[in-house]
Automatic annotation (TrEMBL):
Belongs to the zinc-containing alcohol dehydrogenase family. Quinone oxidoreductase subfamily. CDD domains: ETR_like. GO terms for biological process: fatty acid metabolic process. GO terms for molecular function: oxidoreductase activity. This is Alcohol dehydrogenase. It comes from the Bacteria. Residues 31-111 form the Alcohol dehydrogenase-like N-terminal domain. The lineage of its organism: Bacteria, Pseudomonadati, Pseudomonadota, Gammaproteobacteria, Enterobacterales. Keywords: NADP, Oxidoreductase, Transit peptide. InterPro entries: ADH-like_N, GroES-like_sf, Mito_Enoyl-ACP_Reductase, NAD(P)-bd_dom_sf. It comes from Klebsiella variicola. The keyword Transit peptide applies.
Length: 280
């Protein structure tokens, strides 16, 4: 048998270095589960390693892709998984391939109520949002989100309100996102309205920032000392440089959080994600 995979053996622009290759499919090793991929989305986090940004922890050649949905083809005797069962094939090889062999420990079964396309995006953004909300509780607090129209921020806002946040304000670049945020209960603020942005930030308890750069620096300059800004992305391509503010600054990166999760905590996080995803 053969396995089709999107591979890179050098770093560079994804369009230039990613290639589709047909590779021999090795026999399934004992204790491993073989999964046939159904869907694998494309996220910025999938492409960044291809450019060489994480070359210190990437071994070439490598298969691209971090998340997706597949179905079990073969599982070892006594496994909790069965052939044909839908799973998220996580924390193993790259997901941009037809077949992937993994340790069963981190495979995540997908409930029947969650459709394929939703499940295929059920890892990076949902788990990032869920773990941040667990680490920084939001009940009774006023929140500000940057890049509020993004997938991760949208989940953060909706789930925060469901978890008891008093208010959620979302900073956006385009007015076309205003109605969608309002429908979700999030107060939209255009990033060009600096006066309103600063006024709301002065009364916020938590800021979840995915932008960095000038926007994050502006917020830090007006946040109260009791507030916390959580930096979980740098969509601007520029880091935080503001040092005059008195608010606490924390950083979150999913890759760094994963090693701290026990198997039980990993499974519990997805149990909650599956309950919340279909209604967001």
């Amino acid at each position: 048998m053969f396995n089709d995979a999107i591979v890179y053996d050098r770093y560079g622009p994804p369009a230039a270095v990613l290639t589709l290759k047909r590779l021999p499919l090795a026999p399934l090793a004992g204790g491993r589960v073989r999964v046939r991929m159904r869907y694998a989305p494309v996220n910025p986090s999938d492409l960044i390693p291809v450019t060489g940004a994480y070359r210190h922890r990437t071994r070439l050649p490598a298969v691209a892709g971090y998340e997706g949905l597949g179905e079990v083809v073969a599982a070892p005797y006594g496994s909790r998984l069965t052939a044909g069962q839908r799973v998220l094939p996580l924390r193993g090889g790259g997901t941009w391939q037809r077949f992937i062999d993994l340790d069963e420990t981190w495979l995540v079964p997908v409930p029947p109520a969650v459709d394929d396309l939703l499940a295929a995006r059920g890892y990076i953004n949902p788990l990032t949002a869920m773990l941040m909300l667990k680490r920084w509780p939001v009940a009774g607090k006023h929140l500000v989100l940057t890049a509020a129209s993004s997938s991760c921020a949208s989940l953060l806002g909706q789930w925060a309100l469901a978890m008891g946040a008093r208010s959620v304000s979302g900073i956006i670049r385009s007015p076309q996102h205003r109605a969608r945020l309002e429908q979700a209960g999030i107060y939209p603020i255009l990033d060009t309205d600096r006066a309103l942005m600063e006024k709301v930030s002065q009364h916020s308890d938590l800021v979840f920032d995915a932008v960095g750069g000038e926007l994050a620096n502006t917020l830090l300059s007006v946040l109260p000392a009791s507030s916390t800004l959580i930096s979980y992305g740098l969509l601007s391509g520029r880091p935080l440089t503001q040092t005059r503010g008195s608010a606490t600054v924390r950083k979150f990166h999913l890759r760094e959080a994963l090693p701290t999760l026990s198997v039980a905590a990993w499974r519990a996080a997805f149990d909650e994600i599956w309950q919340r995803l279909p209604v967001t």
